Amino acid sequence: MKKTILFILALSLCFSTAAVAASAKVTIKYKDGYYFGYTKNKLPHGKGTRVWERTLRYDGDWVNGQRQGQGYLLFATSLEAGEIISEYTGQWKNDTFHGKGELSDSGYQLEKFGGSHYINYDEVDYMYISDDTYNGEFKNGQREGSGKYNFLLTNDETNVTTQVTYQGEWKKGFMDGKGTLTRIVNEKTEKYVGGFIKGLKHGKGTETLSNKSAKTTKTCQVVYKNGKKMSATSCK
């Protein structure tokens, strides 16, 4: 009986040791960096950290060598004017952003900025420092679903700051559907509530222009087509 008990204990110890060994963190070296964490079939699987050359790092969940689950990514994009530092925290699927998450960027923008689906205003010829955050839903690496976007733009030459906020629907990375877009420059505020298509105001909506210093407010029923204002009625 004692021998049987000792055998069972020894066998349990062997399985326990094997389980610890199988789940131990390992380091995998690549030409462009390394991975440190748990693996399965020699692939990242479970919790782990992948570091690439330059500023590129992922900490989070892995499934069969792909980022999947919850994770944090830090990366940099090189531009003529400098670098944009980006951070993403949220859900992943098939190695890309998918589900709910937060994506933020900060750094210098190109000298020619504007006309993008973010703010839809005229191009300017100055250097800008930007800071923006999107908090919401993603699908296959793009903003899609419901989300809130905050954008802060500072003119390096005039030191004028533009604040833009959008809350609403997104599709394939663009503002698309119903939403509210607010733009504040100094004491002037422009607010549009209505439809969007591919990042442009489109369809019926309400537009409010206010000036804090002049203590004036004007609200109109508007109709846009692909970003162009077609009519403004019932203004008061």
Task: Give a short synopsis of this structure.
The chain has one helix at 2-23; strands spanning 26-30, 33-40, 43-52, 56-63, 66-79, 82-93, 96-108, 128-139, 142-155, 161-171, 174-185, 188-197, 200-211, 216-225, 228-233. By secondary structure, it is mainly beta.
Q: Can you offer a commentary on this structure?
A:
With 236 residues, the protein is mostly beta strands. It has a domain of 47 residues. The protein is built from one helix and 15 strands. The protein has a 15-stranded antiparallel beta sheet with strand order 1-2-3-4-5-6-7-8-9-10-11-12-13-14-15, with no helix packed on it. It is elongated and about 70 Å long. The N and C termini lie far apart (95 Å). The N terminus is likely disordered.
List the helices and strands and how they pair.
Layout: H1 2-23, E1 26-30, E2 33-40, E3 43-52, E4 56-63, E5 66-79, E6 82-93, E7 96-108, E8 128-139, E9 142-155, E10 161-171, E11 174-185, E12 188-197, E13 200-211, E14 216-225, E15 228-233
Antiparallel strand pairs: 1-2, 2-3, 3-4, 4-5, 5-6, 6-7, 7-8, 8-9, 9-10, 10-11, 11-12, 12-13, 13-14, 14-15
InterPro entries: MORN
Protein name: MORN repeat protein
Keywords: Repeat, Signal
